[in-house]
Amino acid sequence: MYDVLIVEDEPIARASLTYLLDWQKYGYEIKGEAEDGQQALEMMKTHYYSLVITDIRMPVMGGLPFIEELRKFSDAAVVILTGYGDFEYARQGLKLGVQDYLLKPVDEDDLVAVLNKVKDHLDLKYKTSKQLNLGVSALRDQFFKRWVHGQVKRLEFEEQTKLLGIPEHWHSSCCLLVEMDFIHALHTYLTDREMELKRFAIRNIIEEICGDAGFVFEESEERYTLLILHSEESLQGEASPTSLAEKLCVSIQQFVKETVSIGVGQPVRTWGRVAESFTSAEAALDGKFLNGHNTILTSPAKPIEDLDQAHLCHSMEVNVIEAMKTLQSSQVQQALVQLKEVFKSGLLSEKAIKVNVLEILLQLSHVVKDAGASQTLLFDDKLGDYELVMRSKTSDDLYQFIADKCMAVLELLHRMKDQQPNKVFDTVKRLVQEQFHTQISLRSVAQQVYMNPHYLGKLFKANANISFNEYMLQLRMERAKELLRLTDKKVYEIAQEVGFGELDWFYKRFKNYTGVSAGEFRASV
């Protein structure tokens, strides 16, 4: 499934493109939408989209400048949307490596044809890349990975050691598991290319420092395994795995400007027990959750004590939420300090801490909703917060995440407390009068006054005796009548000026409102 980014300044056009067909049926999934080229560039730097479908004419940054900037760091496939008069722009787009173009309004059959063509291109690109990477190096890495996981039999081991140049005689071996702290970090602003360059640089440093004494291979996207095969009977002093790990940490931080955490496995003496060393390195690295980034871990994390974790989690949750309801910053800070102490104590497992954070997050959303405030600015409604919690690597990350949420909610609650209903109503009326010519909605206004849309809708109707949408329609129609009476502007110009992107929709609403068509109304005055 290929991720798609749609770049289009017209909300209606974006929506129609999104729902024009079943994207997954053709091997795609729309993962992002942007209103202009500048916003799209920022999104491309934090997520890899295989396909970008972009309009040419947009405010802030148009399609062609966007594509030109995009090509400096991404090889994503690009399809441009163009009108009948924009063929010169389409030609320039093709020079920038655009895969194809679509005429607006987009026809379903044309879109399917282009998507199939682009998918063939992406499939071939992926297959070629995979084939290039499957060389001797990949086969070597695969063998070492299977070896440390205990999946290699003696006969295969003997054959591969000769083929890959592995020393036949060694006295001790030890696995070091190197985890790159910046991969999947909560707040990383690295592009895919930057991340790949850093991973490559870190592998080079590991290989250079260990020299002929060890073999480096990729365990996963965020981890490298270093298998040390020592020719001496013991691994002591400067040759010890711990000393080597310290040297790796210092060098990587110095030259790559990133930190790593390293789990050091127990030394073993036979090829068949290498898997035991790897397993102990994994267990040691589990301690990173409590100890944080940039650490060297030589023994498994201390075991969780036998206690009622659910009861402890619930008491911490209640403690934080009750402090939030007091609106006292000092009490909230005190509750958060107690929460951090429990997180760092080792009394709770990693899973229990994550569940606890999610429960507190849920209760915070209820507190905000009960206060009539908007949740959209504080809580990600597309499971983004959930993903951030579940992929957190340390208890420090989780604590900082929930502490930031608590302080943001506290600030919002104070702002809501200071707002008077009449003052809010007057503010909303002013915003609608200033913005009714744009794509305004109850939700967008609610965000501007930091309120829940449903709560704001009730408050507005209680003060105006009509709903928000009725009031906005009234403003638009009265302004349209005024323009029809006093100007010679064309109807489509007036429709756009009062906030209607679709002329047919304006005609329908105007006739429902006045009882006559726009043309008849103008003729009557």
From TrEMBL:
Its main location: cytoplasm. Coiled coil: none annotated. SUPFAM superfamilies: CheY-like (SSF52172), Homeodomain-like (SSF46689). InterPro entries: CdaR_GGDEF, CheY-like_superfamily, Homeodomain-like_sf, HptR, HTH_AraC, HTH_AraC-typ_CS, Sig_transdc_resp-reg_receiver. SMART domains: HTH_ARAC (SM00342), REC (SM00448). Keywords: Cytoplasm, DNA-binding, Phosphoprotein, Transcription, Transcription regulation, Two-component regulatory system. It comes from the Bacteria. It is found in: Cytoplasm. The modification 4-aspartylphosphate is found at D55. Gene3D superfamilies: 3.40.50.2300, Homeodomain-like (1.10.10.60). It comes from Paenibacillus qinlingensis. The keyword Ribosomal protein does not apply. Residues 3-119 form the Response regulatory domain. This is Two-component system response regulator YesN. Residues 426-524 form the HTH araC/xylS-type domain.
